[in-house]
Amino acid sequence: MPMPRVIMIFPMQGFSGTYVRHAPLSLLYASAGLVKHGYDIKILDTRLHMGDWQERLRQMIVEAPTLAVGISVMSGRPIRNAIDIGRFVKS
Fold it and tell me: How many domains does the chain have?
Protein backbone atom coordinates (compact mmCIF):
# COMPACT_ATOMS: atom_id res chain seq x y z
CA MET A 1 0.00 0.00 0.00
CA PRO A 2 1.49 3.38 -1.00
CA MET A 3 2.23 5.97 1.68
CA PRO A 4 -0.07 8.99 1.92
CA ARG A 5 0.77 12.01 -0.16
CA VAL A 6 2.26 15.23 1.19
CA ILE A 7 1.93 18.26 -1.06
CA MET A 8 4.46 21.05 -0.68
CA ILE A 9 3.59 24.42 -2.25
CA PHE A 10 5.82 27.35 -3.14
CA PRO A 11 3.72 30.54 -3.51
CA MET A 12 4.26 33.48 -5.84
CA GLN A 13 7.07 35.71 -4.57
CA GLY A 14 5.94 39.13 -5.73
CA PHE A 15 8.10 41.41 -7.86
CA SER A 16 11.42 39.64 -7.21
CA GLY A 17 9.93 36.29 -8.27
CA THR A 18 9.08 37.71 -11.68
CA TYR A 19 12.69 37.81 -12.83
CA VAL A 20 14.54 35.28 -10.71
CA ARG A 21 13.19 31.76 -10.19
CA HIS A 22 15.43 29.52 -8.18
CA ALA A 23 14.46 25.97 -7.32
CA PRO A 24 12.28 25.86 -4.18
CA LEU A 25 15.14 24.57 -2.00
CA SER A 26 13.23 25.12 1.24
CA LEU A 27 10.61 22.60 0.11
CA LEU A 28 13.20 20.15 -1.16
CA TYR A 29 15.07 20.23 2.16
CA ALA A 30 11.84 19.94 4.19
CA SER A 31 10.73 16.96 2.09
CA ALA A 32 13.98 14.98 2.24
CA GLY A 33 13.19 13.19 5.50
CA LEU A 34 9.70 12.28 4.35
CA VAL A 35 11.05 10.84 1.10
CA LYS A 36 13.46 8.67 3.10
CA HIS A 37 10.45 7.26 4.99
CA GLY A 38 8.61 6.45 1.77
CA TYR A 39 6.06 9.26 1.64
CA ASP A 40 4.74 10.36 -1.75
CA ILE A 41 5.87 13.98 -2.03
CA LYS A 42 4.54 16.35 -4.67
CA ILE A 43 5.84 19.88 -5.07
CA LEU A 44 3.73 22.60 -6.69
CA ASP A 45 5.64 25.75 -7.62
CA THR A 46 2.88 28.28 -8.27
CA ARG A 47 5.40 30.59 -9.96
CA LEU A 48 5.38 28.15 -12.87
CA HIS A 49 1.57 27.84 -12.98
CA MET A 50 0.37 31.38 -12.36
CA GLY A 51 -3.01 31.10 -14.01
CA ASP A 52 -3.92 27.51 -13.17
CA TRP A 53 -2.31 26.55 -9.85
CA GLN A 54 -5.77 25.94 -8.31
CA GLU A 55 -6.66 23.28 -10.88
CA ARG A 56 -3.26 21.61 -10.58
CA LEU A 57 -3.57 21.54 -6.79
CA ARG A 58 -7.11 20.18 -6.98
CA GLN A 59 -5.89 17.33 -9.22
CA MET A 60 -3.05 16.50 -6.82
CA ILE A 61 -5.41 16.32 -3.85
CA VAL A 62 -8.05 14.26 -5.66
CA GLU A 63 -5.78 11.68 -7.30
CA ALA A 64 -4.33 10.30 -4.04
CA PRO A 65 -5.06 10.41 -0.30
CA THR A 66 -3.37 13.54 1.00
CA LEU A 67 -1.99 13.56 4.54
CA ALA A 68 -0.78 17.16 4.65
CA VAL A 69 -0.17 20.29 2.63
CA GLY A 70 2.86 22.45 3.42
CA ILE A 71 3.31 26.02 2.23
CA SER A 72 6.68 27.77 2.10
CA VAL A 73 6.36 31.47 2.81
CA MET A 74 8.50 34.50 3.50
CA SER A 75 7.44 37.90 4.76
CA GLY A 76 5.96 40.44 2.37
CA ARG A 77 3.78 39.74 -0.65
CA PRO A 78 4.22 35.94 -0.51
CA ILE A 79 2.10 35.96 2.66
CA ARG A 80 -0.96 37.07 0.68
CA ASN A 81 -0.40 34.30 -1.84
CA ALA A 82 0.11 31.73 0.93
CA ILE A 83 -3.17 32.82 2.57
CA ASP A 84 -4.99 32.32 -0.75
CA ILE A 85 -3.46 28.86 -1.07
CA GLY A 86 -4.40 27.95 2.51
CA ARG A 87 -7.99 29.07 1.99
CA PHE A 88 -8.19 27.07 -1.24
CA VAL A 89 -6.89 23.92 0.47
CA LYS A 90 -9.34 24.31 3.37
CA SER A 91 -12.25 24.69 0.98
Answer: 1
